[in-house]
Structure formats: structure tokens, C-alpha cells
Amino acid sequence: MSRYALWNNKGGVGKSFLTFSLACEYALANPDEDVLVLDLCPQANLTEMFLGGKDIASTALEQFYAQKPRRSVGGYFEARLTSPFLLLPDISDFLCKPCEFNANIPENITLLAGDNLLELLAEAIRGVAQLPLPSDAWAKVMRWLVDLTRTFSDDSTASDVVTFVDCNPSFSIYTQIALCSAENLLVPFTADDSSRRGIENVFALLYGLASSELQGYARLSFSNRANQEKIELPRIHSFVSNRATYYRGKPSSAFEAKSAPIKRLVEGAALSGKRYFANYRQMSDLFAEMPDYHSVAVVASSEGCPLSLMKSGHHDVDGDTVQVNQISINKYQKAIGKLVGRL
Q1: What is the pLDDT of residue 162?
Q2: Which of 199, 181, 233, 197 lies closest to 39 in space, CA to CA?
Q3: Distance from C-alpha of 129 to C-alpha of 172, rounded to nearest angstrom
Q4: In what order do the strands lie in the sheet with 95-96?
Q5: From CA 202, how far away is CA 208, in angstroms rounded?
Q6: Cis peptide before 69 (omega within 30 of 0)
Q7: pLDDT tens across 187-224, in order?
Q8: Rounded to an integer, what distance in angstroms lies between the CA atom of residue 33 and that of residue 26?
Q9: Which of 145, 275, 294, 326 could form an SS bridge with 312, CB 3.0 to 4.6 Å?
Q10: What pLDDT is stored for residue 34 in this prediction?
């Protein structure tokens, strides 16, 4: 069972759409496997894509949240709060098959829907993790999603199970639980200084890697507690440059100039903390590029349509007509396919 989390401490880098595209293309390419997708964002943007877009998804989500227990990650965490350390609830109460709501989605995808209840539950979860007894209370809470993914894998009759986790940009306790459920980390970014700072925080918050003036704070971080409690953290698999701009088939000079500080940052971290990286041999192993997809992402996310199934032509998006050409679809599909091949 392979488990991938997508996270950056900066929002707006295209993380949810990348998760949607990766999960769908992987599922289509591997129909004999089960693909489990966990939406750990209170905004539930990823869930909306899987359920067919905002209008259709909002109705489905209202139905999920009205059920008892809630058919969502919020419902799962509520159930764990009731019995934090003993009984694992029936996970089928919280999972759904998005293909039942959106015919575009492969049948081998199962979804744990996002839920705005996450923010309200965060303090209660933190309180449970800080209980003096049992002595490993914090570690048990950090493994709540590991429990779910392992149970799903044990129950699966497919040839294999792969999990994709869409993490909230914040480093709230539910994001920490999400990251602890993965064995590999993909870090989407855009070529700008705010993304560089977000990646700096990924290194500092998750692994305790920071510049000398911040090292004292970084060593008091989550990573130190995880090491003490023998919690396995995901190793960095790839940095995915989203919305790369090209000129004559190559990344533009402006894009390269903005990307250079990020690549230097990553190279320095890889040299000082190689154990935190998966399969690192050279810098090219760590980076993948997604082209600036423009209207492709707008249409795909609003319709909940995987790239492999998208048709060129005119699409209605919120009352406006959006034109998508086949060249753009092919370009983004090729880049996603290449990344899927690296998983």
C-alpha cells in the first residue's frame, strides 16, 4: 500500500486540483487497484470536484453532513473523539463512492469527504492528544488516519491500494494527523517568494530543518515530538512546480529565475537532511512541472471531469462559456501522466 500526501504551508498553489488529477489518472491507469482519497481541508474543494462540481456537490455534502454519523472526515474524527484509544468505528459509515454522484469518476476511487467541522473539532482533538493517560495518547491520535487507511487496505480485495491525502495549508492538528498517514510527500508550489517561504516552513515544521537563527525553535517542533514517539513521517517524494510558463517548449526565463531560489533551498535541505527524501540521487529526481493549465483546470474542477475524459470545445461554467482546446488538455494530461509514472 502506497500513501501520498500533498501539502505546502502556503495556500493557492493548486494542491487540490493536482490531488484530483493524480488520483483520477492513477485510478484510470490501474483499474485493478483501489484508490482511497482523503480530503483533509475544511473547505472540501477536492470533495466538490469528485462529487461533480459546486452545485451538485453542495447537495450531496448536505446529505452527508445530515447523516448520523456524518459521512465525512468530520464524522470520523467525531467518532474517534468518543472512543479515542479503544474501538475503531466502522469506516464504511464515513466513506463514499463518488462515482455514484459523478459518472466521470472511476469506480475504483473511494473518498473520505472534507468537512468544515474540522476547524471546530481541532481543539477537542488537541485536548485528547494531550491527555496524561495513556502515556502514548499523542501518538495514538496521530495514527487515527493510519488506522483508517490500514483497515481499508485490509478489507480491500483489489490487487493493491494507493492513498492520496489532500492536506490543508495550515499546520493544525488535523493536518499533522493527515501527514502522519502518508509515507510520501508531494509539495506543490508556484514560482514565487511566498511559495519559497511555504517550503521553508515545510522543512522546519515537519522535519526540524531551519536556518541557524531559527534552529532552536525548529528543534522544539512537531518533528522532535514525532521522533520521540516513534511516529514515521512521510519522506519527500517530489516538488511539483504548478503553472509553469513555457517559451518555445522550454520554461521561460522569468519562470526559471523565480524557480531558482526554490531549487537552491531544496538542494541545501537535501544535502543536510537526505534521510527526509525518498529516492534522491540528483536534483532532477525531486522536481516535476505542471504547465499553466488556464481554462483546463477551471473546466475540469467545475465539472468534476478527469483530464483523460475531458473534451475540447465550449463548456458552460457558472453561466459563462469557456473554450478549452485539445492542445492544452494534451499538455496537462502528459505532465500528469509523467508524474503518475513516478509514483
Answers
A1: 98
A2: 181
A3: 13
A4: 95-96, 109-112, 34-40, 161-167, 2-6, 184-189, 235-244, 287-291
A5: 9
A6: yes
A7: 999 888 888 899 999 998 899 887 655 555 555 578 88
A8: 9
A9: 326
A10: 98
Is residue 177 within 8 A of residue 52, CB to CB? The reply is: no
Rounded CA-CA distance 15/188 in Å is 6
Buried b (16+ CB within 10 A) or exposed e, 53-82: beeebeebbeebbeeeebbbbbbbbbbbee
Q: Report the SS3 class of residue 86.
A: coil
C-alpha cell at 243: 503553472
Q: CB of 276 within 8 A of CB of 235?
A: yes
> Of 297, 305, 309, 308, whose CA–CA distance to 334 is shortest?
308
Angle (CA) 106-110-112 rounded to 5° is: 140
Kindly report the number of other CB atoms within 10 A of residue 296's CB atom.
25
Cell (9 digits) for 42: 475544511
The average pLDDT across 122-142 equals 96
pLDDT reported for residue 246: 47
pLDDT value for 210 = 75
Q: For residue 282, give every residue at least 6 positions away whose Cβ sits within 8 Å of its Cβ, in sequence order, or none.
A: none
In the CATH scheme, what architecture does the domain 2-342 have?
A: 3-Layer(aba) Sandwich (3.40)
The x, y and z cell numbers of residue 179, run together, are: 501527514
Between the ranges 123-137, 242-256, 277-291, where is the mean pLDDT highest?
123-137
CB 173, CB 129: distance < 8 Å: yes
Grid cell at residue 209: 530543518
Q: Domain extents for the chain?
A: 2-342
Q: In whole angstroms, give the CA distance from residue 343 to residue 332.
A: 17
Helix, strand, coil percent values for the chain (each to nearest 5): 50, 20, 30
pLDDT at 256: 66
Chain centre to alpha carbon of residue 121: 20
Question: Rounded to whole angstroms, how far apart are CA atoms 336 and 342?
Answer: 10
CB 69, CB 78: distance < 8 Å: yes
Please, what sign has the CA dihedral across residues 240, 243, 61, 324? negative
